[in-house]
């Protein structure tokens, strides 16, 4: 029982990180048909922003030492600002371009950001010990769980509910949903393209910031490609979930998280190093059964 | 109210509209009629800001709106209902209507326009909570017209409202368009059928090969005039003559 609940918590917290990352990617894809590979670098930068900029391999905490709430607000503000800046400088000039062009542009942004990080912080990994209190275990109903996992899962649930409410109840959320279905029609009704796209980048950046905080506590080490594994898993999650579907991104994220933990547990020790091969083999199986993903998005298919 | 002056629009190097001009006065229902590929839809898309003309001017109430972005043009008072309906299928009927009003700040007037739209289109009232994609074609056509009205436009452009609808529904849609005109709205309706144009419009423009080939008050035009202009017959005395393609 203890073992099962522990694995369940592992799967849920890993799935949470994937789901939040996948959401940030899916929102932008839904609205702009942008597959944003630079999303992982936003996550990376959220982590680097915690420390003093320096190429010294011994990281000195800066924002990371502030009171918890201040740290959260500062990191979110930085990453959101950066996300909007990326939009303004890189993606806005090529708005309306072919999706493959946008994707290539996001690679360029990604490499630019990674190399800028190497320039400022150096390429060696840095140890970052943020919020060590989260590493301790707590006992929940006789089962001991890591506090970080509980915080990750609860944060994700709260953000998912918040995003759902925002998309359902607010005027901008309604406009974002309309725009992701038919952007031109929304504009014919006076919906401002700039506002909707900036809002999508801001939310995407906000989710990246949250992921980077949760992930940096878990990892304890940051490198210039810190966010890349998350973004890879999240891309797979959005594809399984159905490109452009918010619910699909969440389902896909949790599915990939569960598959990871499942294979980690059931594979014999000698094969665990090849876990990803099994995870992605499973992904291929899912796509053979449902080629358009778990949740089909009609507007995406019409355009392809 | 709306003046289009000798606009030229191309898709790449292929010209679609070649020096087309027309105008709509306040409170008029003007129909633009013409065969497939005549440039009617291109003209509408250009007025709405989805395409930019290479030459010519578009003015709304005397103000030049040529080359402005779609959302700016919508905010200046042109509401465009494109061909093929384009309901937001995941949004409920009510949300579809509200999108049309999101740019407005006059909350009380929005409320009354909302009620008025539902009074015009009672079927929508029964379907308010339903996703737009679940409506029938005729209901969707009503929804997009109602949604266009929620912007409180100065001019409504409707592209081929009859496309793919049963004749009885087409009549219903035109009844509504005429009623809107009677209550003071200004409308431009694109149509393929000369017959429906004659029945419903105050004035008619026949468009062929990207140009206006005939214009006039529908009361003064006959089926024959329209057909000749529509099909490009040269000799109007007996109605049968060389056809130029």
UniProtKB/TrEMBL annotation, chain A:
Keywords: Amino-acid transport, Cell inner membrane, Cell membrane, Membrane, Transmembrane, Transmembrane helix, Transport. Its main location: membrane. CDD domains: TM_PBP1_LivH_like (cd06582). It comes from the Bacteria. It is a multi-pass membrane protein. One of its GO terms (biological process) is L-isoleucine import across plasma membrane. GO terms for molecular function: L-isoleucine transmembrane transporter activity; L-leucine transmembrane transporter activity; L-phenylalanine transmembrane transporter activity; L-valine transmembrane transporter activity. InterPro entries: ABC_transp_permease, BCAA_transport_permease. The keyword Membrane applies. The keyword Cell membrane applies. The chain crosses the membrane at residues 12-35, 72-90, 102-123, 143-167, 193-216, 222-240, 247-271, 277-295. Belongs to the binding-protein-dependent transport system permease family. LivHM subfamily. This is Branched-chain amino acid ABC transporter permease. It comes from Acidisoma cellulosilyticum.
Automatic annotation (TrEMBL), chain B:
The keyword ATP-binding applies. Keywords: Amino-acid transport, ATP-binding, Nucleotide-binding, Transport. Belongs to the ABC transporter superfamily. One of its GO terms (biological process) is L-amino acid transport. It comes from Acidisoma cellulosilyticum. Transmembrane segments: none annotated. SMART domains: AAA (SM00382). This is ABC transporter ATP-binding protein. InterPro entries: AAA+_ATPase, ABC_transporter-like_ATP-bd, BCAA_Transport_ATP-bd_LivF, P-loop_NTPase. The keyword Nucleotide-binding applies. Gene3D superfamilies: P-loop containing nucleotide triphosphate hydrolases. GO terms for molecular function: ATP binding; ATP hydrolysis activity; branched-chain amino acid transmembrane transporter activity. PROSITE patterns: ABC_TRANSPORTER_2. Residues 2-234 form the ABC transporter domain.
